[in-house]
Specification:
five-stranded mixed sheet; single chain; 38% strand; 3'-5' DNA helicase activity; 20% helix; 14 strands; 3 domains; alpha+beta; seven-stranded antiparallel sheet; 6 helices
């Protein structure tokens, strides 16, 4: 970020006072030209399927077989569409509920039908973090902490149906067709836990040993209590404590919420900056 700051100083978009940087009038004007809602240029149009003769709008969409021309409700970023517009999802728009009938990411179109239902949906997704390099090691007690570039991928593979009355789970559903993951590159930090933590949570009777190597970790599924219990809980704790030591909001950070067999770094505690 220092190189970017130096460029902004030369363009008189920032000014340096002591050790602090402040935006100039020119810098504020330039910042206002950037729309945070347009970070992802790939958009998905949400089209409502209606019976023939019910659509009097002049939207630029073709009629579908047995139906009138769909009504375009809105558009959203492709990444958001994967989490909200998967087939079978309940989609809310202006206080009305719709059920998603199809999602075509390649053509940027999702079709929905107006329905009143007694459930809502939540995506079931798997997030993988790939460490692309490491630097800036720091020893914290018996832990070794590292930072470096990461590639994050997230794929939706199903969803939960939950009651709108009491929030209870109704059904666990799988997507009929696999959805391609979306990915982005960012920076993050991770900690290598002491050897005994991994061994003791897998088997209380096992002697202390070295933590698994990446190749060994990817060859079998890490224990549930260690990865999806202990590690994930600590990750959320660190995310919420981060604002005490760095200028950020917990929502700016993410962690590896799911761990599956084959995840190379499943036994590490990882925190990454959300970006993309």
């Amino acid at each position: 970020w220092s190189a970017v700051a130096q460029q902004a100083l030369r363009r008189l978009e920032l000014r340096l006072e002591g050790d602090l940087l402040y935006p100039t009038k020119r810098g504020v004007g330039e910042a206002r030209k950037i729309s945070l809602r347009q970070i992802d240029p790939r958009r998905v149009r949400v089209l409502e399927l209606v019976a023939d003769g019910q659509n009097d709008s002049e939207a630029d969409v073709e009629p579908l077989a047995g139906l009138g021309a769909p009504i375009e409700l809105e558009s959203m970023e492709s990444k958001a569409a994967q989490l909200r517009l998967y087939t079978g999802a309940v989609y809310l728009h202006r206080g009305l509920s719709y059920v998603v009938k199809s999602l075509d990411l390649a053509n940027g179109v999702a079709t929905v039908r107006r329905e009143d239902v007694n459930f809502f949906t939540e995506p079931r997704d798997h997030l993988r973090v790939f460490i692309m390099g490491r630097c800036d090691r720091a020893d914290v007690g018996s832990l070794s902490a590292w930072s470096g570039p990461m590639r994050v991928t997230k794929a939706v593979y199903g969803f939960r149906k939950k009651s709108t009355v009491n929030g209870k789970l109704i059904e666990m559903c799988e997507l009929e067709s696999e959805m391609p993951p979306f990915e982005y590159e960012t920076r993050g930090l991770w900690l290598d836990p002491p050897a005994w933590v991994h061994r003791d949570t897998e088997d209380d009777s096992a002697p202390h040993a070295q933590p698994p190597t990446p190749s060994a970790a990817s060859s079998k599924s890490p224990s549930f209590s260690y990865t999806r219990g202990g590690l994930h809980a600590i990750e959320h704790l660190l995310v919420n404590l981060a604002p005490l030591v760095v200028t950020c909001d917990p929502a700016d950070l993410g962690c590896q919420c799911t761990r599956r067999p084959g995840d190379t770094h499943a036994y590490r505690r990882e925190i990454e900056a959300r970006r993309g």
